[in-house]
Amino acid sequence: MESAPHSYPPSHATPSDGDGDTEQLPPPATLAAQKEPLTAENARKACTSSRTQTAYRSYLRGIATWIRESQSDPERFFDDAGNIDINVFSPKHFEAFLVAKMNASGRVLKVTTLGGHRSAVKDIYRQKRVALPVEYADDMKTLYQGFKRVEATRNQAGAGEAKMAGKMALPYSTYTQACKETLVLSDGGFSHLYLTLQWNLMCRSQSVETINSGHLSNEDHSIGIVFHKSKANQDGTGPKDPRHVYANPLAPRTCCITALGIYWSCHPRQGPGPIIPGALQRNRFRKTFGRALDKQDSEHDYGTHSIRKGVATYACNGSTGGPSIVSVCLRCGWSLGGVQDRYFRYEAAGDRFLGRVVAGLPVNSAQFASLPPHFKDNNCPIVREGVISMFPAFAEDTRLQPILKLCLASLAYHYDFLSTELPTTHSLRASSLFRRCNLHQSLSDQLVQLESPWMTATGIPPQVVMFGLQKEIQATVCALPESLARRFAKLLEEKGICGNGINQQQMEDTMHRVLDERVPQYSRAIHREDAPPRATLHFWPSDGKLHALPESFDFPSTDVVHAWHLWWFGSEAAGQPPYKSLCTHDLSTRKKRQTYSEWRVMMEHISSAIERKTGALPPPTMSEQQSAVLCVTGVNSLPLGPSKPSRRVTQLKVTTLLRLVRQVEHNNNPNAPHYGFADALSYNGSTQVIVESESGIAPPSAS
Predict the structure, then answer these.
(1) What angle do CA 326, 329, 331 make, to 5 degrees?
(2) DSSP conformational letter for 639
(3) Predicted confidence (pLDDT) at residue 7 exceeds the cutoff of 50
(4) Can you tell me whether residue 564 is helix, strand or coil?
(5) Within 10 A of 397 (CB to CB), how many other CB atoms are there?
(6) For 212, phi and psi rounded to 5 degrees?
(7) C-alpha angle 148-154-156 in degrees, rounded to nearest 5
(8) Are residues 447 and 412 in contact, defined by beta-carbon separation less than 8 angstroms?
(9) Residue by residue, what is the 3-state secondary structure of 579-599?
């Protein structure tokens, strides 16, 4: 009987991980309790997003600067709060501001930027509930049209390369290189998932960070993701049709399903909720994406919006037989305008075809109809065990089980590729799939990809079906000569045309009969059991001795749950014993020995927390599922200090968690020095090591 799935207890701590990023947000109920009651004024302010309000303030500061530099008695243009007084600042003044900016001898603002200034001024009237003067309507519109023509004339007459509006579109080749760079980063798969999600969903960067696990749905052999709100659908009244995301088994670097599996595997404590927890994660991705592109192409002006431009261009113009422009516009959330918006509606078949195209599947090949890697039987106990081991926080989420199994199948299918590409310190290598050889082998035996007993391909255009039939006919014709030759040879042999000699079949039957008579039957029943795995020793050329770990070994940058598994079970696939059995003799550098010491202290803290919570220390022998539950129980009961911003609690690394625990112990120690904890790391201008003793953290000694 299959054991009941283990689930992780909720995490309530909100510590800092020290990298300046925010952590997982509290549950919705907690957020609702923290927010002030909704008022009519707040509801009106919600019509303008916070980003737009920030842009408006910037535009108004520019206008205020112009007023102070060009107007006599400029203070009369501002009220007591220092804001622009619209009773004094008239449309004529605003028109003079626009003309001055167009005639500026230095940096000339673009007409699109000047349009933002007009919107900012209009927002003042809206906030004060004052009717907008008629001068801001048709007359101002005519002025802006003239500005655009003047700007176009200047650009045409000017020397140098014409600059496109906004960022450049990201080509597919550059996208694949960016996927290659982000795949190997030690950020737990964050950048790689963010990039592939934005490309496959054809959405804005801001929309990616709003995706919740509740927005995901199982759509046959794809994943459907729904956006309830976007820039073009601020009030949520637009259609809520799923955007289908497909796997690409031919290119694992760009496969979004594989990227999602990597990300969830690297964060086993992250359960249902935001896919990418934390605030302003788009800024975090923007920095990483910029660094990845600088390694490939530093000459072009790319940004996160280049992804959206690039994928739309690739979908429409990447092939002469691509998806319809209507499907592209609907997936991107663009208005078709007028009659088109009323009559051109969403249809799943068109979006599925588009999903396969943006996934990178070759549209001019029969491989376009490739199914994702999946299991022959999704209800197999081995598959269930794999899901619990790799995604324990989702063990009881029945709605996401098909998606989790799709992600697990992709990881098992691309196991060799990931083993080759990922660095040895990547967090995925600490997961169960990459530590336990038997789990990988068991899952691989259940994999299918070409002929499926239950899965049917969707989103396939008619020409791809013809490609498949032509490929089958070609294979049959190519195999015909060899098949005919074998049949003629067999016919000649059976008829004995070469004389009265013995043919091959008669010879084989005679040999089998002799062997059956001479070889004792019991010898065939001998079963040779596989030898138990033995510990692997590694020779170090530097000292000429054998060690439990290779000289090039380094500790992975991993989640605390994966570190706990490595501490108790090691890595069978890498030939590494349980880390708790290591000694400093097996580590080649002082930095590695210091890291091992930090791991050991952290594991002792977790074990003590488990004992306080359950009344007993972790047993010496336990399953990985039991150890995972105990680990999360201990981590959630650790006394972690509060932090002002909400942190990504489920993604804390070992050293970060240890630093937070030590900080709390230091603050609770009445005998500790009064200088700040951060200052304890630096004393008299020299770096010191804080030594943990039985009475707490000992202060650094002066040299």
Answers:
(1) 105
(2) -
(3) no
(4) helix
(5) 17
(6) -115, 155
(7) 105
(8) yes
(9) HHHCCHHHCCCHHHHHHHHHH
Q: Please tell me the predicted confidence (pLDDT) of residue 538.
A: 86
Region 469-480 average pLDDT:
80
The proportion of the chain whose per-residue pLDDT surpasses 70, expressed as a percent, equals 81
510-535 pLDDT, tens digit each = 767 766 665 555 444 444 444 444 56
Q: Of the candidates 271, 193, 266, 282, which has an alpha carbon nearest to the alpha carbon of residue 652?
A: 266
Nearest to 348 by CA among 193, 457, 222, 459: 459
- 628 neighbors 622 (Cβ within 8 angstroms): no
Contact 556, 427 (CB under 8 A): yes
**Collapsing DSSP states into helix, strand and coil, what is residue 97?**
helix
| Residue 642, token pair as written in the block | 């509060």
- Angstrom distance (rounded) from CA 550 to CA 319: 49
555, exposed or middle or buried, with CB in 10 Å at 0-12, 13-18, 19+? Answer: buried
Q: In this predicted structure, what is the pLDDT of residue 339? A: 63
pLDDT at 566: 92
Mean pLDDT, residues 462-481: 80
Q: In what order do the strands lie in the sheet with 216-219?
A: 216-219, 222-225, 243-245
CATH class of 172-448: mainly alpha
683-691, Cβ contacts within 8 angstroms, sequence gap of 24 or more: 690/662
Least confident of 101-115, 446-460, 672-686: 672-686
Residue 317 in tokens: 């113009």
pLDDT at 68 > cutoff 50:
yes
Predicted TM-score (pTM) of this structure:
0.74
Contact by Cβ (8 Å): 401, 272: no
> DSSP string of 192-245?
HHHHHHHHHHT--HHHHTT-BGGGEEEETTEEEE--S-BTTBTTS-S--PPEEE
CA 237-219-651 angle, 5° bins: 85
C-alpha span between 184 and 252 (Å, rounded): 13
**Measured between alpha carbons, how far is 572 from 433 in angstroms, rounded to an integer?**
10
d(CA 363, CA 360): 8
Mean pLDDT (the chain) is 82
CB atoms within 10 A of CB 371: 19
The 3-state secondary structure of 515-537, one letter per residue: HHHHCCHHHHHCCCCCCCCCCCC
DSSP strand E in 636-694: where? 682-683, 686-687, 691-693
The region of weakest confidence among 96-110, 126-140, 263-277 is: 96-110
Q: Identify the residue whose tokens are 């040779």.
A: 528
Mean pLDDT, rounded, for 490-505: 63
Tell me the average pLDDT across 82-105.
Answer: 90
Please name the helix (run of DSSP H) or strand (run of DSSP E) that holds residue 120, with its range, or none. helix 111-128
Please write the tens of the pLDDT for every residue from 413-428.
Answer: 999 999 999 999 999 9
Q: Which of 221, 153, 515, 586 is nearest to 378 (CA)?
A: 221
Give the confidence band of 197 by pLDDT, cuts at 50, 70, 90.
very high
Greater model confidence, 184 or 486: 184
Q: What is the maximal distance between C-alpha atoms in the chain?
A: 124
For residue 113, give the 3-state DSSP assignment.
helix
- Residue 483, CA distances (Å) to 289, 476, 478, 488, 503 in order: 54, 10, 10, 9, 20
Chain CA centroid to CA 697, Å: 38
CA geometry: angle at 603 spanning 600 and 604, to 5°? 85
As a whole number of angstroms, the distance between CA 682 and CA 84 comes to 49
Per domain, the residue ranges of the chain are 44-157, 172-448, 538-668
